[in-house]
Structure formats: C-alpha cells, structure tokens
Design goal:
Layout: E1 7-8, E2 11-21, E3 28-32, E4 35-42, E5 50-56, E6 59-65, E7 73-81, E8 84-94, E9 99-108
Parallel strand pairs: 4-6
Antiparallel strand pairs: 1-2, 2-9, 3-4, 5-6, 7-8, 8-9
Length: 110
C-alpha cells in the first residue's frame, strides 16, 4: 500500500486531529518524535489570548485563553524537526462544559 502524504500550502503535515476536552479534562498532550506539546484552554482575564511557554528544550506549554472570546485560531512556529521549522495551526471552540481543539502540525519542505 502506498504511504499517504498530506500537505498544507507548501508544508508537510506531520500530525493533525481533533480533541474534545470535558469538564474533568484539563489538557491534552501531543508528542512528535522527542518534542512534547501540552495544550489547554484557560479562563484568565488578565492573560493574553495565546500563551506559549518553553518549559524545556523539548517541552512546550500552550494555553489558549477563552475569556476574551472572538476567533481562537492561531498559527505559529513551535520548534524544529529534522532541521526544518515545525508550525502549529490550532483552533479552539469553547463551550460551557467542554472545548473542541482542532490542530495541525506541519513542517517546511526541504
């Protein structure tokens, strides 16, 4: 069977998916090779809409603040993979008791 390849623009899709977090789920984690991404929705009025903190050289904490509302869609560089830029495009749809995250990790083509 041939291997399937996905592209977004000129970039190769590394991982993509959707995650639904319920009231008891604080966050979700995506691990790509040796890189760990911990993603969550927060409600903190004095915090930016997007908070990205590098906890270590291989772990990134990403928080999306839902208090200000509006379009919660972002795309930004999150690191390097195999010597190429790795980006995350993410969308959060926040509801009263659950959150729906849709995400795509992509890397630049050589």
């Amino acid at each position: 069977m041939p291997s399937l390849q996905k592209y977004v623009g000129g970039n190769t899709v590394v991982d993509s998916g959707s995650v639904v977090l319920g009231p008891d789920d604080g966050r979700f984690t995506v691990i790509i090779d040796n890189l760990t991404f911990i993603i969550s929705a927060i409600q903190e009025p004095r915090t930016e809409r997007l908070s990205v903190v590098r906890e270590s050289h291989d772990k990134l904490i990403i928080k999306i603040n839902t208090t200000q509302g509006g379009d919660l869609t972002f795309k930004f560089k999150v690191g390097n993979l195999m010597g190429r830029d790795l980006s995350l495009a993410i969308h959060l749809e926040a509801h009263d008791s659950y959150s729906i995250f849709t995400y795509t990790f992509s890397m630049s083509r050589p």
